[in-house]
Write a structure and sequence with these properties.
Layout: E1 11-12, E2 15-16, H1 20-23, H2 48-54, H3 65-70
Antiparallel strand pairs: 1-2
């Protein structure tokens, strides 16, 4: 018989702690199947384009986008 249990946990010292509410269902020596889905935090390295998109450099004497398209 196959029984699925799902929970979220953090890895500590290479171990996954089973929540107390499931410990009575899972016994020492049981054969289990573990599927790990990792939620990664955004670790995208920011580059100069990201910086300029968020903080555009203002330069005097340069045409604005509107001025360029109006010509």
């Amino acid at each position: 018989m196959l029984n699925a249990v799902e929970f979220q946990a953090k890895i500590q010292n290479g171990l996954i702690q089973i929540p107390d509410e499931y410990k009575q269902e899972l016994h020492e020596g049981d054969d289990i199947k573990v599927i790990v889905l990792v939620t990664k935090k955004s670790s995208k390295k920011r580059d100069i384009i990201d910086e300029l998109t968020e903080n555009p450099v203002q330069v005097d004497g340069v045409l604005s986008r509107e001025e360029i398209y109006n010509r």
